[in-house]
Amino acid sequence: MLTTLAVLMGLSGLVPIAQAAGSEVDVTLVLAVDTSRSMDFEEIGIQREGYVEALKHKEFIDAVKGGLTGRIAISYFEWAGYVVQDSVIDWQVIETEEDAIAFADKLEARPIATQRRTSISTAIAQGASMIVSSPFQSRRQVIDVSGDGPNNSGDPVTPARDKAIEAGMIINGLAIMLRPSDAPNGLDKYYADCVIGGPGAFVLPVRKIEDFAVAVRRKLVLEISDLSPPAMVQKISGAEAGTDCLIGEKQWRDIFDR
């Protein structure tokens, strides 16, 4: 089954599997974090602090304990035009506060660096690969993508999204909107129409640096608790008419055609 899914999704280079005691969890959650050069080191540092703070917060830990099994499996990686291979933090079961702190400490210890371009499709494919190769059984499999711009590198984003959804996964988004976006109608709408998908999928926008930690925490709690945010742009799958899901690729191509 693993091989069939991997071939179906065109995935390669599966991430090594961490050993865990017991395989049943409420959620398998991959955090796919954008570190492209459109964000400066201060912004990426604040983004990192937001994830670390959220993972250690009581609200996150209470959400984990409130599930049917009281445990989740979580992993992490950074991406830009490609997946940063040394950024991958392999699967870890979160069941206690100590587990959450240990995972957050691994994340906090990572050096901060940036890379060129933005390939959301590559991030989705990597997240799907990690879920397919994980040793866990869960009711929900979630790829959590944060980013500050549209796809402009690698494969188009919508086929990658659709393949992950067809495999039963959910893709949620955190649209980082600290600066004007290359997406004409707003990055949150681009994410809603072109990136997220699956039952209850949602996108949360972040417009101020000081709101980042709260937004990350809220997103994690919603994903773990299987709740949908009220009054928030949401979409199951498929782009709406008028949303150009190739806008990033076209803008990048225009730069070199001038």
From TrEMBL:
<keyword id="KW-0732">Signal</keyword>
<protein>
    <recommendedName>
        <fullName>VWFA domain-containing protein</fullName>
    </recommendedName>
</protein>
<dbReference type="Pfam" id="PF06707">
    <property type="entry name" value="DUF1194"/>
</dbReference>
<dbReference type="InterPro" id="IPR036465">
    <property type="entry name" value="vWFA_dom_sf"/>
</dbReference>
<dbReference type="InterPro" id="IPR010607">
    <property type="entry name" value="DUF1194"/>
</dbReference>
<feature type="signal peptide">
    <location>
        <begin position="1"/>
        <end position="20"/>
    </location>
</feature>
